[in-house]
Design a protein that fits this description.
The protein has helices at 43-56, 73-85, 99-107, 127-137, 151-167, 183-195, 211-217, 255-269, 275-291, 316-321, 333-338, 355-365, 384-393, 419-428, 446-453; strands at 15-17, 28-33, 65-69, 88-94, 111-115, 141-142, 174-178, 200-206, 249-253, 297-302, 349-350, 369-374, 377-383, 432-435, 441-444. By secondary structure, the chain is α/β, with parallel strands linked by helices. The strands form 4 sheets. A 6-stranded mixed beta sheet has the order 1-2-10-7-8-9, sandwiched between helices. It has a 4-stranded parallel beta sheet with strand order 5-4-3-6, with helices on both faces. α1 crosses α5 (151-167) and α5 (151-167) crosses α6. The longest helix has 17 residues, at 151-167. The chain is elongated, with a radius of gyration of 24 Å. The N and C termini lie far apart (60 Å).
Length: 455
Amino acid sequence: MIYNSIVETIGNTPLIRLNNLNKGIEGEILVKVEYFNPGNSMKDRMAVKMVEDAEKAGILKPGGTIIEGTSGNTGMGLALAAISKGYKCIFTMADKQSKEKIDILKAVGAEVIVCPTNVAPDDPRSYYAVAQKLNKDIPNSFYPNQYDNPSNWKAHYETTGPEIWRDTEGEITHFAAGVGTGGSMSGTAKFLKEQSESLISVGIDTYGSVFKKYKETGEFDDNEIYPYLTEGIGEDILPKNVNFSVIDHFIKVTDKDAAVMTRRLAKEEGLFVGWSCGSAVHGALEYAKENLKKGDRMVILLPDHGTRYLGKVYNDDWMRNHGFLEDKAYGTARDIVSSRKDGYQLVVVEKTTKIKEAIAIMNEKSVSQIPVMEGEHVIGSLTDNKLLLKIIENPELKDANVSEVMEDSMQFVALDSTLDVLSSMVEREKAVLVRDDNHRVHIVTKHDILAAITK
């Protein structure tokens, strides 16, 4: 087939099955690899639609200038559209973005203005504000505003969603994607949910972003906002393209876990992808290990290509300088689990167990924390110090069921969660739980983490 321009090759990217990183998950995991687009990212889809919709509306006229604030990938899509249609491009970018992204945009003829990251969105120095001012000052210019422009989500509603539905033959139960401007998640999820009301969508957020708490509480909490390194997901604003009604759950992922998973995708699956792809896969797999069952099929959207991050996540020195590469002693939950003997058995009690029996079990097994079960599901926990206080206050409780005094369940974490992440979690809370590749549940305590660090 002969195409009239490069933008005609956008779309119809492949779905690829994960074969190694999905161990221990009962359902099937597929990834939609968007770096097969000509600009090496999913942003090509909405960039062209924003331009074409602006042309139809008479907002963008011949010889005009496209001005946008971008983390890099949207800029690339807009630049390709501009080349094919004869427009100029000026892009503003936050200074946390990789040098490769800036160089690529310059290579396709765009002017790039780098702005500080750690300023408020309404600060005149922010890349949002600088782009808006340029749009006001430059005649015959168009500011797409990917955050609020409905052409963003509509591009994915019209292309990404239908492609996934077609290629899975309608057999998809879960969809997961990172949430930044919100277009790819919202547009794709909206289409898929219209085809299947039972479909569950999982949005991937980052620590330092407001999305997860806002979804769960309706509160925009400024305390949730702090600097983070991952590019392309999370926000300190609420873009109009984030449709929270079509996003069922949010999972937050640390910069480190995202970077480590990005490298694992390259080494273990042959998928040389970008940093937010690692976020999407880490978060989606964390959700899948607890929620997918046999016969389920999850599709994860992988936004871009690894060439954008050669100086960062694929650079050992950069990773080490940021504490993302460590000696083996500072490993992961997987290392703790792997060191246990074959006969390891998690000590648990049922919710109907008498409290005095639970105390006897804890004493016999020399454990200070214990999960409470209902059948095969963990529904709560007991800790010796809080249990002791309750018994002293009311001695008759010893003959009651565990369900009357149990605390919230211990949190499940991903098998490849690093020790520093585990340490921060058990410092704030109680022990955590993890499933190994054979789906057996293990407990990880402060003592386990200290033992792993000091080996």
